[in-house]
Structure prediction request, 172 residues.
Amino acid sequence: MKLHYSLSIALIILSLDLATKYWVESTMVYGQQIPVTGFFNLVLTYNAGAAFSFLSEASGWQRWLLSAIAAGASIVIIYLLIKYKTEKLFCLSLSFILGGAIGNLWDRITLGHVVDFLDFYVGDYHWPAFNIADSAIFVGAALLIIESFSSKENAQTDSDSKVERKEKIEKL
Prediction:
């Protein structure tokens, strides 16, 4: 996949993430919940930590640590997009992860926390609130897992083909 396609996908995800966060912050107050269905609310909440609010109670140093990790990961992802440009599903996966990582990085740097607003629940159990960036990272990770299985299948098929060719050559 050409680098500009990968970066365009990441930019679309980043734009959707920032636009939805802006919309939620401009229409809701912190902690407000708007029921949408019997299993989903819109809720404005902030997360100063990482996934599942890990490190959210720290004194502020986590903002810069998590920002540095996201920035470093983004650089590595761009390198991988360049190096493995022929691997389309791999690049698509990384594009989703890159867009999400930069979306949350932007929040951490500019706000000091990540804006979350998607609240899914069953009964009284609520999954931790998340956002479009988190969703894109999850989808990208899931695609990476799928890609890893398809790579193994392709490698096995290639290996089987090589064995068959070798056997044909030996018969000659």
Observations:
- Residues 93 and 144 are 6 Å apart (CA to CA).
- The chain has a mean pLDDT of 88.
- The chain has four helices and four strands.
- Strands lie at 33-35, 40-47, 114-122, 125-126.
